[in-house]
Amino acid sequence: MVSTARPGEPALVLVAHGTRSARGVEMIAALADAVAAELGANGAGAQEAAPNPALRTAFVDVLGPSPSEVLRDLDGPAVVVPAFLASGYHVYQDVPREVAESGHDAVAVTPAMGPDPALARIMAMRLRTAGWQPGDAVVFAAAGSSDSRARQDVRRAAGMLAEQIGAPVRIGYVATGAPRVPEVVATLRESGAQRVFVASYLLAHGLFQQRLHDAGADGVAEPIGVHPAVVRLIAERYRVAVQELARARVR
Fold first, then answer.
1. What is the mean pLDDT of the chain?
2. What pTM was estimated for this model as a whole?
């Protein structure tokens, strides 16, 4: 989606992975709309909303447009926010490459969304909604990555969730890395766990979320999805980057 920008205000390019799931695509669009509304309403009174910055979505895989294509269409400065829960190959390689290929000379790239305590609080809420109760075992399910920095981010995020629910969690991966989620579920049952729940460290519905429902757990939490805390997190990433761009122009 695109919204009207104030003159000179940096555009926001929200970069997601991409999915063939219609629900996943709709979720990213809804997230973009919510972020645009959050930024437009920031500081506005009840009777008058401030204009939104231009907001575009881009994808690094499966779908288009790519970040470089979006950036080439923008005239003024831009802030790229990677909507990823861990900083792996897409964040460290794909996004910088896309920015460089765009030829755009006024782009700030923010840190990825996760790990962050706000995401852990959402996961804890989703777990409870799925039926988890204290005493039930928990599998922290992440997509996985071959990048050691991404795996470290996942470990940090799992620690944040464990702190939120006051119970240990075991990490399992959906696509890349070991152990896989079904293996962790089976191991917990073999060790005596009567009920096992999966906490989804995924942003949107898609193939990976569906795989969690086939892992043999007693319940699977919904993905993080569109939540006010996620919206505020992305908006804050944008605001900090706008300040950095302003300071860079002054130098």
1. 90
2. 0.88
pLDDT tens track for 190-210: 999 999 999 999 999 989 999
In the block, tokens 């766990």 appear at 193
Number of domains the chain contains: 2
- 102 and 33 both lie in a single domain: yes
Query: Model confidence at 104, in pLDDT bands (50, 70, 90)?
Result: very high
Q: Where are the alpha helices (DSSP H) in 93-224?
A: 95-102, 117-129, 148-165, 181-190, 207-212
Q: Which residues contact 52 (CB under 8 A, 6 or more apart)?
A: 3, 4, 5, 36, 37, 39, 40
Question: Does a structural domain hold residue 103?
Answer: yes
- For residues 206 and 174, membership in a common domain is answered with yes
Residue 246 within a domain: yes
| Burial degree of 11 (CB within 10 A; 0-12, 13-18, 19+) | buried
